[in-house]
Each structure stands twice: as C-alpha cells, then as structure tokens.
Amino acid sequence: MEHITLSFPATRTVSGKALAGVVGSGDMEVLFTATQGDILTIAITTSVDNSEQRWKALFERLGALSSIPAGQMQIHDFGATPGVARIRIEQVFEEVSHA
Question: Which stretches does DSSP call E strand in the chain?
C-alpha cells in the first residue's frame, strides 16, 4: 500500500460532508469534509505503487475544468481506473455543493 498526501489551492467554499463509492467493492471510496480556507488536502491510500504523478495530474485536470472546494479528502483506492476515480471525486464535490 502506498500513502500519498497532496494539497491544491481551493477556489470555493462549501459545507458538509460527502461519501462516494465503497472501499469493499474492489473499486475506491472518497470521503470529503468541507473546511474554511483556501486549500484542499488529499490523503490517498492506494494499492497501486508509484501512482503519485497520476493523482497529481487528475487533480490538476479537475482544477482546470471546474472549481475545487476547500476541505479534507480521504481516498481509499484499490485499483480503480482513472475514469472511476474522477467520477467518485466529482460525486463528492457535487454532493457538498448542494448541502
């Protein structure tokens, strides 16, 4: 298991918590808790070694396409494809946008 910690500038604030995915599904789980401030901190536990660059690229793309909320995110990844990872992350961002 690899543990990765990333931080990205946040461009909006939201409130609440959100969960997407189920870690036991062989996929991935994303937990998000909104915070005040201007940083999104991400803690990733993944079964895929040497994947830090892939995760950085994914969040850079998300930031270029939409606004990233301030908060803390935990990702438990067990080999999800980049497409599934993006969907799960966008799901929690969408859920807290409507909280």
Answer: 2-9, 17-21, 28-34, 39-46, 71-77
pTM comes to 0.91
Residue environment code for 16-52, b if the CB has 16+ CB neighbours within 10 A, otherwise e: eebebbeeeeebbbbbbebbeeeebbbebbbeeeebe
Domain that holds residue 64: 2-97
The CATH number of the domain where 33 resides is what?
Answer: 3.30.230
Identify the residue whose tokens are 């901190």.
41
pLDDT tens, position by position, 7-28: 999 999 999 999 998 876 668 9
